[in-house]
């Protein structure tokens, strides 16, 4: 298998998993009926296992992907490192039963501010999707960091863009961030709905540099530079200068 084919298969599997998780959560949200305070506990009891299960599957997927990529890059069999579910505990630093209460608050606040029911319902559903997407990204980042740390030949990595997974193509933030090399212990800066993958660097072998150039080489370089900031729950995130974010102090 080539690096390209391994990456393509990994990207498709990751997207299929995310789509499945989001559809399950949408079903749970749409099935509530009243969306009042009495629904909150039952909703969280059902959706949190879906999210944590998706995170565990994401970690196993990343482990297999990195072992396959390294096997192809080195010409030697590289085994998975065996990531465990406990490695993914409390990635936000905030209990998930607090996190998945937020869509209800979003919906109630919209109604209080005079929104139509349909719009308030959609605002809550959008929040569910954003939270779950971020939680899967956190699992992806944590799993890749742990896998890289346990592979001695890996010294660093690069984000590799996946323009085919976004309706608008690669966002300017990821376009510019793909030029960076990261030490293997560095946490990858993320953003909601990001579909970038990671790829290890072994010695001078940096396949993501070539792949990114092929995908982005004909596009103009974005003029607005991204900034990496530390979000109170999500850790390093990519943002446009001037955007607001939740700080660690606010979370505490």
Overview of the structural elements:
The protein is mainly alpha-helical. It has one domain. Helix content is 53%, strand content 10%. The strands form two sheets. A three-stranded antiparallel sheet has the order 2-1-3. A two-stranded antiparallel sheet has the order 4-5. β4 (226-231) and β5 (235-240) form a beta hairpin.
Strand-helix topology:
Layout lengths: L2 H28 L6 H38 L21 H4 L2 H11 L4 H33 L6 E5 L11 H6 L4 E2 L13 E5 L5 H10 L9 E6 L3 E6 L7 H4 L1
Antiparallel strand pairs: 1-2, 1-3, 4-5
Helix pairs in contact: 1-2, 1-5, 2-5, 4-5
For the largest beta sheet, what order do the strands appear in spatially? Answer: 2-1-3
What is the β-strand count?
5
Q: Determine the strand fraction and express it as a percent band.
A: 5-15%
What's the number of domains?
A: 1
- Which regions contain 5 or more consecutive residues with pLDDT less than 50? 247-252
Gross geometry? globular
- Kindly provide the radius of gyration, computed on alpha-carbon positions and rounded to a whole number of angstroms: 19 Å
What class do helices, strands and sheet pairing give?
A: mainly alpha
Oligomer: single chain
Count of helical regions: 8
* Average pLDDT: 88
> How many strands, which pairing sense, and closed or not: the largest β-sheet?
3 strands, antiparallel
How helix-rich are the residues, as a percent range? 40-55%
Terminal Cα separation, in Å?
A: 47 Å
The succession of helices and strands, N to C, reads: HHHHHEHEEHEEH
């Amino acid at each position: 298998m080539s690096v390209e084919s391994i990456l393509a298969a990994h990207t498709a599997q990751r997207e299929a998993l995310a789509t499945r998780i989001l559809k399950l959560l949408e079903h749970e949200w749409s099935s509530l009926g009243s969306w009042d305070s009495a629904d909150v506990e039952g909703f969280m009891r059902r959706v949190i296992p879906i999210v944590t299960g998706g995170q565990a599957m994401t970690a196993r997927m990343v482990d297999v992907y990195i072992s396959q990529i390294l096997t192809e890059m080195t010409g030697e069999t590289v085994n998975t490192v065996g990531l465990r579910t406990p490695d993914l505990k409390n990635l936000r630093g905030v209990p998930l039963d607090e996190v998945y209460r937020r869509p209800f608050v979003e919906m109630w606040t919209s109604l209080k501010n005079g929104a139509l029911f349909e719009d308030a319902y959609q605002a809550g559903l959008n929040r569910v999707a954003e939270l779950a997407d971020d939680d899967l990204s956190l699992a992806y980042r944590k799993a890749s960091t742990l896998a890289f740390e346990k592979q001695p030949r890996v010294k660093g990595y690069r984000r590799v863009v996946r323009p085919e997974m976004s309706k608008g193509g690669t966002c300017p933030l990821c376009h510019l961030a793909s030029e960076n090399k990261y030490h293997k212990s560095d946490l990858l800066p993320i953003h909601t709905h990001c579909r970038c993958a990671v790829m290890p660097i072994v010695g001078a072998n940096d396949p993501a540099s070539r792949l990114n150039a092929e995908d982005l080489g004909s596009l103009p370089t974005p003029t607005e530079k991204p900034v990496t900031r530390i979000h109170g729950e999500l850790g390093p995130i990519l943002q446009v200068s001037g955007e607001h974010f939740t700080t660690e102090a606010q979370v505490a």
